[in-house]
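Progress narrative, Year 2. Work on DNA 3'-5' helicase from Deinandra increscens subsp. villosa advanced from sequence curation to structure prediction during this period.
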Amino acid sequence: RDYVRKYVEVNYIEGSDDEKWSKKDFPWTKKLEVNNKKVFGNHSFRPNQREIINATMSRNDVFVLMPTGGGKSLTYQLPALISPGVTIVISPLISLIQDQIMHLLQANISAAYLSANMEWTQQQEILRELCSGRCSYKLLYVTPEKVAKSDALLRQLENLYARELLDRIVIDEAHCVSQWGHDFRPDYQSLGILKQKFPKIPVLALTATATASVKEDVVQALGLVDCVIFRQSFNRPNLRYSVMPKTKKCMEDIDKFIKDNHFDECGIIYCLSRKDCERVAETLQESGHKAAFYHANMDPDKRVTVQKMWSKDETNIICATVAFGMGINKPDVRFVIHHSLPKSIEGYHQECGRAGRDGHRASCVLYYSYSDYIRIKHMLLHDMEQNSNANSGRVLETNTENLLRMVSYCENDVDCRRFLQLIHFGEKFDPVKCKKTCDNCFKDQNLIDKDVTEIAKHLVELVKSVKQRFSASHILEVYRGSLSQIVKKYGHNTLSLHGAGNSVAKGEASRVLHHLVVEEILIEDVKRNEYYGSVSSILKVNEKKAFNLLAGRHTIILRFPCSTKASNSSRNDTSTPAKGMLSFSKESPPRVDTPAQTQPELDTKLYA
Ligand code: ADP
Ligand code: MG
Ligand code: ZN
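Result:
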């Protein structure tokens, strides 16, 4: 990890930035300012834009972390325009590329792109233009698989390089390099070849999402040298965050939320499956909203139509899978609702980031149910079986880890949401600055640290004593002393720990149990039951990790709201499984549902 130490950290947030990049006496300063106004129509630069441009124009390798909508494109398009040769831009999606090229051509900047699914003759033409004496392109966009697989392209780049016409290599959406990111693309990993072949050409890597590990991966995979980092606070002060329990009434809750706070305004509802998208859109239509759905399984024409209608405000609400959004640049999105658990904190942050680009207030509401964790984990397993390769074990592990962090985020009803999100980007956010714009800060509750080690031990022991063959909700039932038919049927009412937790609030016990899953002391073993066609999950013990806990060498402390009735409050229980979301298989009895819990009036107050 030596390369980490080589960083020249230019940290915007902590004010430790190097003033030299903000100077206005570089040889290109005048040109920059003129072209920014004339060609791009901007009155000024946004934070960090001038600094990034100066650093890359000074031929440094530069790594840029800037929130979505911050204006990353300008930081390479403007240098490309005022440099003599060609800038190569690697970008993951054709739709993103086409959108960019359209804007460039509108501004009279010559640009082209190469992708694998283009006609070969068309590709030839572009390559020929590249090696012609007076290549007119200022920017050439390529997809990563082109770099990985096309020798013809590499030869043309070598040719440009030899003629000193290769100005700069730009890696847009650079987090795609890393398996730790939410959007891993294997072809990005082969981009390291560019730095090997063209060591003197400055590389500019740009992303809106990078945790410390993603950043390390990117720097290493691309082979960046003495890289200058520009990092901007990822906090979005105009967004309000909250997590709500997802119950059977979820659709009613969403309908009410929109009507009370954002009626007839523009929003996105992220759903897990295509079916969910359609169902959610339909239900909203029935309740009088202008809603449409959008997912990868649709006819491409239909997709374009839906997106256009949304851009023109002919529909207000798009119910979409995460396929919707990359490159979407609608400024007045007033709410982003997650109908189910996002797959990672970075993904969540990015999806929320599509709200409130215009700087006005917008809401981000996540409907959380622990059972969605099991659903998604099952989908991940399924994906792995479908595209199994040498890497899939590691990918699954990473995905599960990212997912568990999201569970932990949702289960946390204490810490500032901004703090919890930003810590993943290596940014330490002071919760005072939240000013009660997230649900947890809004609650303004007294908190108390509780030692829950005993509860944790009991739960682990219970999982063992039911032979690791039952679900989380069954374990909780037994722990709390339920005498339901199923508990009796398996004789679990005779276990010594049956009812051991009868004085512990349900919310408290389930939070401890979910904490054990997040800490990987307990493991959800998700299976599909071919016979019932259903998904089930049983809890197992991770012996290695459980050992210290059971041996009394591991203490678990969780923070709880401290009310007078702390230990039978239901406030913590944001995790009641929604009925009908999980059915049972032979090995595991049905989850026993408890009545839907509703959150205190927090919601309306927060948005009033
Ligand atoms: P990112 O890639 O960081 O998500 P973009 O480069 O797509 O962001 O820019 C987002 C929007 O901001 C675009 O509409 C762009 O025209 C606009 N923009 C960028 N820089 C400036 C600026 N200096 N002044 C005004 N608008 C800008
Ligand atoms: Mg961009
Ligand atoms: Zn907060």
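The pocket of adenosine-5'-diphosphate (ligand 1) is lined by residues 42, 44-46, 49, 66, 68-74, 329 (CB under 6 Å). The CA atoms of residues 131 and 156 lie 6 Å apart.
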